[in-house]
Design goal:
Order of helices and strands: HEEHEEEHEEEEEEEEEEEEEEEEEEEEEE
Strand content: 35-45%
Strand order of the largest sheet: 11-18-17-13-14
CATH architecture of the largest domain: Sandwich
Distance between the termini: 154 Å
Structural class: mainly beta
Largest sheet: 5 strands, mixed
Helix content: 10-25%
């Protein structure tokens, strides 16, 4: 073997040793995720109560991961799998984002098992650990629990408009209220658990179902036979001769008949809002000084036809 060939072999061996050493150094300085994602939490669903459950989009936030190289960003996915059922490939099949610290889901369907999974990665291709948060509940089905009117019971007169208060759960911003087959036009959502609405006068007497519909998702709930509409009952004074009144408050529909005529008013009579005073034909009303009838509700006075 020539000396020149042996020398060339030595050079090749030295070159191979240098390559191995260089590759070994690269391996030693490869970047790594030194601080993984921390404080992963939901801004929209911190507690799974009815206020949060009607939010169809879940907002997540976290403290950024740290790499001793260059942090490229994150892979994340919203799904219905808990941490034990989540794989690296499943998260990689999700969405890739840059170095953000918050993300919002698309509008999600109703479920009591929404989960969020996220994983950091850096420029060298190093992945952090998969971090999971959940379950989150999305429930957009309304629930009607009680219906009462201004007097605190569940019935009202069809002689006047009645304001009802509907209590329950998961009432969304856009909704409608139906009493029987009539959709009410005056409806106010006070909160996710309370609605006020106006039942107009003229409803036939009877018992009615009350329904609430969340318009955005077309989901409804009905409470059967929960509100009763009554025909107004007139109060007729019990008398058999002239009646003297002083400082009277009329809060219910009242009729003055000929049996008590004349009515002598020594003080003011107030017909309150929601009540109607009806005076029959032939009834005489006498007013003392400074006496009178103040009407905040209704006043109906009947007379006899004029004879010619």
């Amino acid at each position: 073997m020539s000396k020149s060939f042996k020398k060339m072999q030595q050079h090749v061996c030295m070159l191979m040793l240098l390559i191995v050493a260089f590759v070994g150094n690269i391996s030693e300085v490869k970047a790594a995720i030194t601080a993984d994602i921390a404080n992963l939490t939901s801004l929209s669903h911190p507690i799974n109560n009815s206020d949060n459950q009607i939010k169809r989009q879940i907002v997540m936030t976290w403290d950024t991961a740290v790499s001793d190289g260059t942090l490229s960003g994150y892979y994340y996915i919203f799904d219905n799998n808990d941490a034990s059922s989540t794989t690296l490939s499943g998260v990689l099949a999700g969405t890739q984002i840059g170095a953000a610290v918050t993300v919002t889901s698309a509008a999600l369907s109703d479920s009591n098992s929404h989960y969020f999974h996220i994983m950091a990665f850096d420029a060298s291709g190093t992945f952090g650990s998969v971090t999971t948060e959940g379950p989150f509940v999305v429930n957009t089905s309304p629930e009607v629990q009680t219906v009462v009117d201004g007097s605190g019971d569940s019935s009202g007169s069809n002689g006047t408009d009645q304001t009802i208060t509907i209590s329950g759960l998961r009432f969304m911003d856009a909704l409608s209220v139906t009493v029987g087959s009539t959709s009410l036009t005056s409806v106010t959502r006070n909160s996710s658990s309370q609605i006020t609405a106006t039942v107009p006068s003229g409803f036939a007497a009877g018992s009615y179902d009350v329904s609430v519909t969340n318009a955005a998702v077309s989901k409804s709930h009905t409470l059967s036979s929960v509100y009763t509409v009554n025909s107004p009952v007139e109060v007729i004074p019990d008398c058999s001769g002239p009646l003297t009144l002083s400082g009277v408050l009329i809060e219910e529909d009242t009729r003055w008949t000929i049996l008590c005529s004349p009515y002598t008013l020594n003080g003011s009579v107030l017909v309150s809002s929601g009540a109607t005073l009806t005076i029959d034909p032939g009834v005489e009303v006498k007013l003392a000084t400074n006496a009178g009838i103040r009407v905040e509700g209704g006043l109906v006075v009947h007379g006899y036809p004029i004879q010619k």
